[in-house]
Amino acid sequence: MRNVSTDSWRSIAARAENARAPAAWPVNWPAVNGAPGEPAFHDGQAAATGTGDAQQLRIDITTVEQILRKTQSVALGRYRCPVDHPQFMLGGGPHTCSYIAFHRTSVKMKIGDWRAEVATPNNVSFYNIGESYSRESIGGEGDECDWLAVAPSLLREIRADLAGDIDGGEGPLFPRPFAPMRPAAFFAQRKLFSIAGNPDTTMNSLQIEEAVTGLIGAIVGNAMDFWGYSGKARRKPRPQCQRRRLQIIEEAKALLAREYWTDLSLADLARHLHCSAAHLSRMFHAATGFRLCDYRQELRLRKGLFLLEESGLEIGDIAVQVGFASHSHFTSAFHRRFGINPSEFLRWKSSKLILAMKGGALKAGAGTTKNGAMKAA
Hints:
Strand order of the largest sheet: 1-2-8-3-6-9
Order of helices and strands: HHHEEHEEEEEEHEHHHHHHHHHH
Low-confidence stretches: 1-52, 357-377
Strand content: 5-15%
């Protein structure tokens, strides 16, 4: 699998008007952040008839979403849907552009014609143009995620750049809807969305597009490798075992998503799922790219990072809330995973992320340790 470096993605970033996130969500958002003459939202009639500029970024947002930044080629937004909101049962789609979603809560998602899977902060979800989705709650959390929307013109550039690895025909860019997200990419997208959500931070369109395309390069490259487009043959289970295998894996993911802060043992998990511990451990790693202990640890650290961003709690309180024995245990694990202490994370200035993106820090697989390596069996 050829890694896609940040430099190779910079050539596809287009210069556009200066975009800055508003302090509040304006009623006339296109007039504030959209390029002159460019419709920021989906025009149903144009989409149905095929009229209009097919290369424009058309975003089909709902009442539970907010756009943070937008250029002519990309947009960053947030989605916050409580489980008791009418939109939760409605789902969404068909989408008018392609999206990459970064989950903040755990929810069972069904995208397009693919089988439903448990999506957590350890996953990234991919939505092609025309796909719809439905979902089920896990533990009453609702559905919260941050997302990137990408214009068709940019997607064609991505397809061309990956032509050596996948079919360059007219099929969807994303051949599957779910993949694990490596720690380096997770940390970078959190910093990017933290910056994008701060109305006091100015980012011009070139900075936004360089950051987003570099992140997309890392995430798509990692996902293609996980999906088996690296040229390595994938071993498949016997057909009669497949249904039960998938059921066990999804139930294990849901259980860990609900109780990531508890001290469940492998024996506890196996007993709950009515399978052997060895069988569960082997199947879970083959299907998700994580060992069970690493999957839970990643959930704890990523949930902890969300709380650092938004809760205002003391670091020690966050540590206990997400399942660590102490402040020092959380700090040590956080530093090993993200290369920075929680207190340093809170002080990290936005300019450092932009400089890191420009310097090529986001290469596919960068910053991943042996235990965090994600490859499908």
